[in-house]
Specification:
alpha+beta, three-stranded antiparallel β-sheet, 36% strand, elongated
Length: 195
């Protein structure tokens, strides 16, 4: 199974803890640490994805919790893949880090949480993608930098342990998803250009 970038320490820590506890004969805690190892492997998985048909792709796995013609919000539960992907081909104009609150990511007010705001220039205009942390860990890992070119479906970063992604829809696109829909990063087409 392929793991997300920069996740080795997160995955290895519980296995070392498991070994240490087992060597000390503390079997119950060793079993708990082993369960933690399995969770870390599951959480940091990074499957290959093939982009869906033409149009704007979902930047995250999860459930649509807000959908209006110019913006969608996707909640990622701990069971979702947390690697984020570029919705369209584009140029990373800038990335702005903002401090903020640490509310549960599914709450409406979580839009004020700690976040990265990535501005992409696409052939259809500028779009903004926000990687927003949740209550736990609160770590955003960004794989791209200002000045980079990104391809539709390319891995651009990840957020650890419960989070959300908000993305603007370029003018001239029709939204294809609704609140409550489940989407997959780099596969699900969430909006298409007007014909």
């Amino acid at each position: 199974m392929k793991l997300a970038r920069n996740s080795t320490a997160w995955v290895m820590a519980p296995i070392f803890l498991t070994a240490g506890l087992a060597a000390a004969g503390i079997w119950l805690l060793s079993a708990v640490a082993l369960a933690g190892f399995v969770f870390m492997i599951f959480f940091h998985r990074d499957p290959d994805r093939l982009p869906g048909g033409d149009g704007m792709l979902s930047p995250a796995d999860g459930k649509i919790i807000h959908a209006v013609p110019d913006r969608i919000t996707i909640f990622m539960s701990p069971s979702n893949v947390h690697v984020n992907r570029a919705p369209l081909d584009g140029f990373v104009r800038n990335i702005e880090y903002r401090k903020g609150t640490h509310l549960p990511a599914f709450m409406g007010r979580a839009c004020k949480n700690q976040q990265n705001r990535m501005h992409l220039e696409t052939d259809d205009g500028e779009m903004e993608l926000r990687q927003i942390t949740g209550t736990l860990v609160r770590e955003i890992v960004c794989y791209v930098h200002p000045g980079d070119q990104v391809s539709r479906g390319q891995r651009i970063g990840m957020i650890r342990f419960g989070s959300r992604v908000e993305v603007s829809i370029p003018t001239g696109y029709n939204l294809l998803v609704n609140k409550g829909d489940k989407v997959r990063a780099g596969e699900t087409v969430v909006a298409v250009r007007n014909s």
